[in-house]
From TrEMBL:
Its EC number is 2.2.1.6. Signal peptide: none annotated. CDD domains: ACT_AHAS (cd04878). Residues 9-83 form the ACT domain. Transmembrane segments: none annotated. This is acetolactate synthase.
């Protein structure tokens, strides 16, 4: 039996530049990592956006995802926030077939999940549900017998609880490998002397020989 992989939530702080989303999602595709959902929006700092990515994998796979994301020049910070206490929410719009005789039952489901009806038509209603992914999934399952016409989900957005929020001063890039220039090999004194021209011995004159 295949072991079910755990779901992880990753917060990625990136430069707000064109093509960043494509580069991040492309990295997941090239490396064979699955994206369950991804949301992108402006962060508290101008010029920076925050992506919330949910993916499935073991600890080794999540560590590899972090390392690969840090290789992208636009990535400022990567945090696996599901490893700490966090708040996660998802919004879903559900279009359900609802004849007049069925609507009281459907409203019972809506009230149970603290959802709301945002549009009513002659033969259907649109329900807005907000909560974690498990809550949204459970509500969709209960509405299936009535006939679901369409579902639109935002994906998970999340934030660490108080005392563990992502702060700008805590952002640190993972150290990137820097190439060191090759050092020049020092020459030994013997090698230095060999490179210099041979010095000629001074010649002794006849007068100097007679004095000697």
């Amino acid at each position: 039996m295949k072991q079910q992989l755990a779901t992880h939530t990753i917060a990625v702080l990136v430069q707000d530049q064109p093509g960043v989303l494509q580069r991040v999602s492309g990295l997941f595709g090239r490396r064979g990592f699955n994206i369950n959902s991804i949301t992108v929006g402006s962060s508290e700092e101008p010029g920076l956006s925050r992506m919330i990515i949910t993916t499935s994998g073991d600890d080794a796979m999540i560590e590899q995802i972090q390392k690969q994301l840090y290789k992208l020049i636009d990535v400022i910070q990567v945090r696996v926030i599901s490893a700490s206490p966090m708040v996660a929410r998802e919004l879903a719009l559900i279009n359900v077939s609802a004849l007049p005789a069925q609507r009281p039952e459907i409203m019972g489901v809506v009230d149970t999940f603290r959802a709301s009806v945002i549009d009513i038509g002659p033969s259907s209603i649109i329900i807005q549900a907000v909560g974690d992914s498990d809550k949204v999934e459970a509500m969709i399952e209960l509405l299936k017998p009535y006939g679901i016409r369409e579902v639109s989900r935002t994906g998970t957005t999340a934030m660490l609880r108080e005392g563990q929020q992502l702060r700008m001063e805590e952002r640190q890039r993972q150290p990137r490998a820097q190439e060191q220039l090759p050092r020049t090999r020092e020459q030994s004194p013997q090698q230095t002397s060999q490179m210099q021209p041979n010095a000629q011995a001074p010649q002794t004159t006849s007068a100097e020989r007679s004095l000697a």
